[in-house]
Structure to design on (138 residues):
């Protein structure tokens, strides 16, 4: 079983998914063995498509068109994900392979009762943590 599920939800952003797929495919094989990717298509029109290749990727789709369904998408992903730890983020948030590796390595030491949030950088400036980017235990 993978150690970390990387979870995102997407509405009408095929280019964003394609960008992440290209990044994820570049991760080292040892890191990929620790990861599961869960993508929830929030009723995009047309439906999202993903070439899974060798990625441990699950593309789920919400069949009902529900306005602002981010919490519903996250709940669906949390139920379907199989890892002990879940990293949630919006499709327009990006982090490095090194940051993902550090999260995977840290998971056994993290407090399972806490919500873990991260500082972030935009155009070289540290800004407030993003409310939709967080790490939680199952």
């Amino acid at each position: 079983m993978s150690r970390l599920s990387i979870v995102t939800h997407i509405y009408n952003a095929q280019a964003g998914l394609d960008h992440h797929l290209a990044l994820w495919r570049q991760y080292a094989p040892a890191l990929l063995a620790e990861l599961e990717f869960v993508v929830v298509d929030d009723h995009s029109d047309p439906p999202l498509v993903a070439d899974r290749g060798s990625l441990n990727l699950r593309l789920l789709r919400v069949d009902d068109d529900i306005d602002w369904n981010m919490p519903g998408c996250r709940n669906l992903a949390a139920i379907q994900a199989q890892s002990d730890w879940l990293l949630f983020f919006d499709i327009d948030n990006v982090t490095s392979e090194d940051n993902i590796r550090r999260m995977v390595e840290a998971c056994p030491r993290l407090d399972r009762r806490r919500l873990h949030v991260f500082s972030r950088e935009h155009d070289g400036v540290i800004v407030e943590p993003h409310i939709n980017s967080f790490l939680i235990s199952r």
About this structure: The chain has a mean pLDDT of 92.
